């Protein structure tokens, strides 16, 4: 079969890869996205929880409202299950019907001119005088690796690789409701979530419950979802005996940006580049932003509109403060102090800064103060 020629081939049809491809296509460039999955809603490895800023991403313009549910508050729980309710005027998180959202994003990208090849895994790429020859796909002037935390593009082409992870597991319960559906429930517990936290939220289709813990090489222990649910489900209005309708799991980068992130006519974006907050592990917003920024910069270069000497990739955040907090959380997480300090003003302010960018405040608690 004759090779097809593209301006860019993007490996991975997640948020970052599609955001990058979307920008390239908007500038009239020929772009192909390949993904190993036959259906983009299969084997999803993201929570699908969007911060408010992510909803303004160009890729999400026109997203069907039925795929979203606004969640205006955060309820933070200490290990002893005492809690405080937080919120900020005008600020919302959004849960999603994540499999349906990923399918819609793929279809939306195609309507914008992106060629999307489902069921097409990345095997290898060989350097050519004009770019890259991607095995089984074609030739491209540039190659973008957006293939997740265990990027095969990074592995094959000698780029930086993610080395620090969280291990996350998430259950979906269809057609059920939380007692407090307007809050993102976050549980701090060294017992169940060392190095991170557990969470529950109402979604457009039911309830999402998740748990993540620090991943250590050689330690294959998975998060104890069964124990976590026995611990918190009754107070949330869920049946302990209810089996999940779907389960997803995977590794989440938490070590900050990788290096090198780019080489000759190749660049990593999103999770593959480690563009995930080392502390909160939030990667959708940063992936959308990073992918779109790389897409615009590549478009300027490929179309000849970029100024001479313009960078191929934007400045990379160092996440210095969040790396420090990540170290502290890894080495100084103890349940007893959290039980005592949950409602203390310094801790509350730190949570508000992370969740609402300093715009947060304690909100009236419909269930009564704990």
From TrEMBL:
A molecular function annotated in GO for this UniProt entry is: FAD binding
Q: Name one Pfam family in it.
A: FAD_binding_3
Q: Which domain of life is it from?
A: Bacteria
Name the InterPro entries on file. Answer: FAD-bd (IPR002938), FAD/NAD-bd_sf (IPR036188), Geranylgeranyl_reductase (IPR050407)
Q: Which PROSITE patterns match?
A: PROKAR_LIPOPROTEIN
Q: Which residues form the FAD-binding domain?
A: 6-192, 260-308
Homology family: Belongs to the CbrA family.
The name this protein carries in UniProt is: Protein CbrA
């Amino acid at each position: 079969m004759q090779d097809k020629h593209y301006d860019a081939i993007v490996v991975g049809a997640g948020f970052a890869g599609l955001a990058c491809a979307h920008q390239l296509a908007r500038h009239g460039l020929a772009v192909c996205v390949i993904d190993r999955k036959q259906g983009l809603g299969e084997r999803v490895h993201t929570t699908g929880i969007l911060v408010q800023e992510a909803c303004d991403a160009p890729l999400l313009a026109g997203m069907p409202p039925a795929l979203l549910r606004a969640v205006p508050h955060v309820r933070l729980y200490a290990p002893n299950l005492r809690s405080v309710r937080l919120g900020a005027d005008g600020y919302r998180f959004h849960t999603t019907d994540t499999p349906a959202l990923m399918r819609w994003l793929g279809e939306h990208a195609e309507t914008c001119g992106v060629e999307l090849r489902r069921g097409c895994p990345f095997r290898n790429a060989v350097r050519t005088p004009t770019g890259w020859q991607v095995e089984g796909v074609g030739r491209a002037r540039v190659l973008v690796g957006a293939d997740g935390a265990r990027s095969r593009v990074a592995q094959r082409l000698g780029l930086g690789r993610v080395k620090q992870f969280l291990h996350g597991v998430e259950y979906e319960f269809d057609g059920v409701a939380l007692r407090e559906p307007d809050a993102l429930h976050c549980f701090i517990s060294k017992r169940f979530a060392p190095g991170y936290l557990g969470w529950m939220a109402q979604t457009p289709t039911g309830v999402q419950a998740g748990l993540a813990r620090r991943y250590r090489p050689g330690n294959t222990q998975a998060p104890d979802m069964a124990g976590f649910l026995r611990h918190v489900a009754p107070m949330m209005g869920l049946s302990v005996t209810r089996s999940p309708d779907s389960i997803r799991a995977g590794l989440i980068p938490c070590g900050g940006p990788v290096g090198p992130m780019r080489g000759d006519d190749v660049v990593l974006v999103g999770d593959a580049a480690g563009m995930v907050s080392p502390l909160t592990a939030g990667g959708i917003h940063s992936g959308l932003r990073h992918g779109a920024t790389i897409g615009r910069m590549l478009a300027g270069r490929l179309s000849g509109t970029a100024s001479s000497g313009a960078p191929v990739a934007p400045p990379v955040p160092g996440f210095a403060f969040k790396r420090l907090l990540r170290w502290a959380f890894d080495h100084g997480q103890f349940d007893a102090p959290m039980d005592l300090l949950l409602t203390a003003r310094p801790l509350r302010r730190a949570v508000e800064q992370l969740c609402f960018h300093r715009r947060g405040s304690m909100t009236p608690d419909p269930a009564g103060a704990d």
